[in-house]
UniProtKB/TrEMBL annotation:
Residues 128-177 form the Myosin N-terminal SH3-like domain. Residues 973-1021 form a coiled coil. SMART domains: IQ, MYSc. This is Myosin motor domain-containing protein. Residues 1064-1077 have a biased composition (Polar residues). Belongs to the TRAFAC class myosin-kinesin ATPase superfamily. Myosin family. Transmembrane segments: none annotated.
């Protein structure tokens, strides 16, 4: 292929390098040695697994000829070694003769194929220039060495540890200069090859720079430790574009900006192996979205869904302590202002088998261990929760904890998250009860009851606890676990289960309860995060799905997981390879096609009909005699033509995936694909008193509404699911792909640095395998040689046309676009003009976008200054006018207020004068009248006392008597005042006594009214209870009458005691008696009901009369020598005791009637159960 290679970057690229870079040595010296201390073994091995460099290969011939004939050609792979780096001269003399002298003459290796000599175009050059090259050691690792000499097809290299090896020249791979160590984008590497990519990633990984760009793809290496790259400071920095280094924040920020700018939904697809850090990467992306789109509060709920989903859907595996055992797609919706308005979560293929079976060293789902460790004592007592080691489901793996993880603390986090997403406390208790029921199901054991190995569950703590937790009868649970009802024509056959069948039934019930519980939780979360009317159509979807898995034993779960990864890989190829190159060809631009690995053959192996893996699996699942071995043989018989399929011994087969070859064991494939839960178990859940099992049963009945077309399953029963697990998963996967196709994707490839989950450990072989699986090198090649940015002529002219200096309003969009490119001096090799679009190389559109932003910013500044000036002028004029207007308005207002105030003042003066005059006159009259009265009294008293001595008075003693008279008047006046004061004090005392008596009277009246109200309320309560009992009796009569009319002649009951209203139905009753035998118990039942009705009427009349009489005595209407309060309490006690006895007899009657209808149809039993519950609730 003849492709353009980029020259070495200038010193301007140093800005993107780490801050601790430094030059060690002269710029004019040869390439510097690297200090990796790896022991090199003697080897002459030739590397045969290195993919081809995009700037190398057969194109070297053209490059050499161009250099010889036309000075220096930049398309040559050697041109990068001749162009100076920031002014640095080449190691030759710098003229053309020197350059051509060092070029190798055409050798036979040039004419060979790429497959034989992948790096043959540069090996001879690097050998003659004595540059550093990569050499592959026998263990597969790469070591850098300095070429000492080259002779023919062999070279002598010196390794960093001082060893000197003689190797074949074609096994050497050129290394990049030291200045490119640790670049943040692999596209900047001069030599793009596997060892260079591995070294660059390791260099950054050792400095905790775990993110590296590979063109449009972000490569994230799991550090297995906390790194200081997150938090609000980093979020603000990436939001403000003050940091340009690769990061999940940068990818998420790009998605948000493109969503707002282009009004196109975005998706962030996170992929990688198990343990590569996909879940944490998704959480980091959600944190950035919540920080930028927050404000409404919904973002906090979205973040709190992570601990819930992790607790119920993640588990510890051998490779990962927090492995997602399900796939999830989180679709976050945004409003018109760019704020989060809601979200929706979709899940895929929960690994249900982990509930009942775990490998050694693994754990089941986290929530089981968190519940046992962190549940409060009251909850543990309520659901009878024990320690983890006491449950068989959890104890089979001998792994109960994870280093550094506190399950009790995580449980509190989960409960807080459930509160935040609006799951009520009652529902939370129901969820925990279902979890405990799943654990106790594993403790149910069976015992053999006959010679045919039929079993039944032991009635132990496990069985009774499960029955109590799900709210069913112990006997019904035993029947559901040990028997199975099957239809044969119109007859129902009850088949007893063997030990293996019973265990499978128990495990199927446990798996179904947990799977339905997980789906119910996701549904509740979606209700809490619902968008509703705020939906705008803009969304960003984050896909966190299980990575490619290959274990020692791979079962049905790995089969589905790897199939999903094949689909995602094709989506990745389609967007980055297929669609890219197809668009180049359709638009007619000059383009050299890049080869890449296509996995369409593997997808055809899975999806082809009728001879595909999924089709054959569904076909074999419908056969009654189908087994895992017959399924494996059928695959080997029909799929041998596919290059991706290989048969293996026994039940195994191999599939060549894009990530490598995987051996699958078909043991359990058919059973897991059927995922059968018999109708007996579903009916058991539907009959439970708890609401969650009823919801689960309704969901499963909806899914199994139509049986699979074909023979009955070997497990029995025609109530199997309509679709198999594989078919449903395929449908979900196709829907996911369609949704992703309608979005603009952003890819994050997570890489696991080592299998031991140890920080600072970097395994080259493991990383290289993942890079090959992810197609990272192909992505970089196509990005370097391609045009990742494209824009239509119309959009380009509309967006950047205003930047032109001349008016181009009359020109067509293509002419405008070309004029823009010429004005800004964009080099012709940096873009190409297609039929409908302009295609740019990486970074070119950024120059125009920066210029546009600066121009718009300048325009906005000018507009803001002019508008500010206009606003200030208008504001000053407005202020002057307002001040003038306010002065007139305020003056007029003050004058009006003063006139009103003056009028009010005058009126007040007149009113005060009149009032003061009236008060003074009144006071004067009162004083005058009092004075006259006092004077009249005093004078009369004096006159009466002194009238006897009037005749004895003489003229000579007139003056002396006048003084005595004055003394007498003063003494009488003091005595009169004392009497007045005494009378006033007595009057006040009488008034106080009168007030006290009045208050007591009011208290007595209020007490009497309250007592009357209590009497009335008690009378109403009695009447209601009487009416309730009367209605219950009437309903019982009607129900018994209906039963009597519709009852068949197969009921046989013998009455034994008519007084106690009980019958004995016999132990061997089978419903074979005639109509004559069933008439007598029915007539006895009618007579009992009649007696109960008569007793009810009599008691009603007696209690009603007694209560009415006591009310009349209490109110005083009837006189009687008794205490109404005491008699009323005694009457109430009598009523309660009679009601309790009457209710017991009613219940006994109900039991007898149930015995009478023991052989009735399903409709009669439902009616009796309803009648019994209705009467019981009314009596209670």
């Amino acid at each position: 292929m003849s492709q353009k290679s980029q020259a070495l970057p200038s010193f301007e690229l140093i800005k993107s390098l780490p801050v601790d870079f430094r030059f060690t040595g002269s710029l004019t010296s040869d390439r510097l040695e690297k200090s990796d201390d790896v022991n090199a073994e003697n080897s002459d091995a030739v590397c045969s697994s290195i993919p081809e460099n995009d700037s190398l290969g057969n194109g070297m011939v053209d490059g050499v000829l161009d250099i010889i004939g036309n000075d220096v050609n930049e398309d040559s792979p050697y041109s990068g070694n001749i162009i100076t780096v920031g002014g640095r001269p080449s190691s030759g003399n710098g003229d053309l003769d020197t350059v051509t002298s060092v070029l190798p003459s055409p050798s036979p290796s040039i004419s060979r194929s790429h497959t034989e000599h992948r790096w043959g175009d540069t090996a001879s050059y690097t050998g003659k220039k004595k540059l550093q090259s990569w050499f592959q050691l026998p263990n597969g690792d790469w070591e850098i060495g300095k070429i000492i000499s080259t002779s023919g097809t062999e070279s002598v290299i010196s390794l960093p540890d001082g060893k000197v090896l003689k190797v074949k020249s074609e096994s050497l791979v050129p290394a990049n200069p030291d200045i490119l160590d640790g670049v943040d984008d692999l596209m900047q590497l001069s030599y793009l090859n596997e060892p260079s990519v591995l070294y660059n990633l390791q260099y950054r990984y050792n400095q905790d720079m775990i993110y590296t760009k590979a063109g449009p793809v972000l490569v994230a290496i799991n550090p297995f430790k906390e790194v200081p790259l997150y938090g609000n400071d980093y979020i603000q920095a990436y939001k403000n574009k003050s940091i340009e280094s690769p990061h999940v924040y940068a990818i998420t920020d790009t998605a948000i900006r493109e969503m707002i700018r282009d009004e196109v939904n975005q998706s962030i697809i996170i992929s990688g192996e198990s343990g590569a850090g996909k879940t944490e990467t998704a959480k980091i992306a959600m944190q950035y979205l919540a920080a930028l789109g927050g404000g409404s509060g919904i973002e906090y709920e979205i973040l709190k869904t992570n601990p819930i989903l992790e607790a119920f859907g993640n588990a510890k595996t051998l490779r990962n302590d927090n492995s997602s055992r399900f796939g999830k797609l989180i679709e976050i919706h945004f409003s018109e202002t760019g704020k989060i308005s809601g979200a929706k979560i979709q899940t895929f293929l929960l690994e249900k088998s982990r509930v009942v079976q775990c490998m050694e060293g693994e754990r089941s789902y986290h929530i089981f261990y968190q519940l046992c460790a962190g549940a409060p004592r009251t909850l543990k007592e309520k659901i009878n929760l024990k320690s983890v080691s006491e449950y068989k489901y959890l104890g089979q793996s001998n792994c109960y904890s994870i280093n550094g993880v506190d399950d009790a603390e995580r449980f509190h986090v989960v409960t807080e998250a459930l509160d935040i997403v609006h799951v009520s406390k009652e529902d939370q208790e129901s969820v925990f009860a279902m979890l405990a029921a799943v654990l106790w199901l594993g403790n149910i054991s069976f015992t053999v009851v006959d010679n045919e190995n039929h079993v039944e569950p032991l009635t132990d703590e496990g069985l009774t606890t499960v029955a109590n937790l799900i709210g069913c009868d112990v006997g019904e649970l035993k029947l559901a676990l040990s028997t199975r009802k099957m239809k044969a024509g119109n007859d129902n056959i009850i088949q007893k289960l063997t030990l293996s069948q019973a265990i499978d039934t128990r495990d199927a019930l446990a798996k179904s309860i947990y799977a339905c519980l997980f789906e119910w939780l996701v549904e509740q979360i979606n209700k809490s995060l619902a968008v509703g009317k705020r939906r705008t159509g803009r969304s960003i979807s984050i896909l966190d799905i299980y990575g490619f898995e290959s274990f020692e034993r791979n079962s049905f779960e790995q089969f589905c997981i790897n199939y999903a990864n094949e689909r995602l890989q094709q989506h990745f190829n389609r967007h980055l390879f297929k669609l890219e190159q197809e668009e180049y060809i359709q638009d007619g631009i000059d383009w050299a096609k890049v080869d890449f690995e296509d996995n369409q053959d593997c997808l055809n192996l899975f999806e082809k009909k009728p001879l595909g893996l999924l089709s054959l699996l569904d076909e074999e699942s419908t056969f009654p005699n189908g087994t895992d071995l017959t399924f494996a043989n059928k695959l080997k018989q029909h799929l041998h033509w596919n290059s991706c399929f290989r048969g293996d011994r026994g039940k195994a087969f191999k599939v060549c995936h894009y990530a490598g070859e995987v051996i699958y064991d078909t043991t359990g494939f058919l059973e897991k694909n059927r995922d059968l839960l018999h109708l007996d178990s579903i009916q058991l859940l539907s009959s439970c008193s708890c609401h969650l099992p009823q919801i689960f049963a309704s969901t499963m009945l909806t899914q199994s509404a139509k049986p699979v077309v074909g023979p009955l399953y070997k497990a029995g029963g025609a109530d199997s699911q309509k679709l198999s697990v594989a078919t449903k998963f395929k449908g979900q996967l196709f829907q996911l792909m369609q949704r992703l196709e309608n979005t603009s994707p952003h890819f994050i490839r997570c890489i696991k640095a080592n299998n031991s989950q140890s920080p600072r450990s970097y395994e080259q072989g493991l990383v290289l395998q993942q890079l090959r699986c992810c197609g990272v090198l192909e992505v970089v090649r196509i990005s370097r040689s391609g045009f990742p940015t494209r824009m239509s002529h119309q959009k380009f002219a509309k967006r950047y046309g205003f930047l032109l200096l001349e008016s181009v309003a009359s020109q067509d969009p293509l002419s405008v676009s070309v004029a823009i490119l010429h004005q800004f001096n964009i080099l012709p090799e940096m873009y190409q003009v297609g039929y409908t679009k302009l295609f740019f190389r990486t970074g070119q559109i950024g120059v125009l976008e920066d210029t546009r932003n600066r121009t718009l910013h300048s325009i906005l500044r000018v507009q803001s200054c002019f508008r500010g000036h206009q606003a200030r002028r208008y504001l000053s004029e407005l202020r002057r006018g307002i001040a003038t207007l306010q002065s007139f308005v305020r003056g007029e207002k003050i004058r009006m207020e003063y006139a009103v105030l003056l009028q009010r003042h005058r009126a007040a003066v007149v009113m005060q004068r009149q009032i003061k005059s009236t008060l003074s006159m009144k006071r004067y009259k009162e004083i005058h009248a009092a004075s006259i009265i006092i004077q009249s009294v005093v004078r009369g008293l004096l006159v009466r006392r002194c009238s006897g001595n009037i005749g004895l008075l003489t003229a000579g003693g007139t003056k002396g008597n006048e003084s005595d008279e004055v003394l007498v008047k003063a003494s009488f006046l003091a005595e009169l005042q004392r009497r007045i004061l005494k009378a006033e004090a007595a009057f006040r005392e009488k008034e106080e006594e009168n007030d006290i008596l009045h208050q007591r009277l009011q208290q007595y009246e209020s007490r009497w009214s309250e007592y009357e109200l209590k009497m009335k309320s008690m009378e109403e309560v009695w009447q209601k209870q009487m009416r309730s009992l009367q209605s219950s009796l009437s309903i019982a009569k009607k129900s018994l009458a209906i039963d009597d009319s519709e009852r068949n002649s197969d009921a046989s009951v013998n009455a034994s005691d008519e007084r106690d209203f009980s019958w004995d139905t016999g132990s061997n009753y089978r419903g074979q008696e005639t109509n004559g035998h069933s008439a007598r118990p029915m007539s006895a039942g009618l007579s009992v009901i009649s007696r109960l009705a008569e007793e009810f009427e009599q008691r009603t009349q007696v209690f009603g009369d007694d209560a009415k009489f006591l009310v009349e005595v209490k109110s005083g209407q009837v006189e009687a020598s008794l205490n109404p309060d005491r008699e009323l309490r005694r009457l109430k006690q009598m009523f309660e005791s009679w009601k309790k006895d009457y209710g017991a007899r009613l219940r006994e009657t109900k039991v007898i009637l149930n015995k009478l209808g023991n052989e009735e149809g399903a409709l009669d039993r439902v009616k009796k159960k309803w009648w019994g519950r209705r009467n019981s609730s009314r009596i209670n």
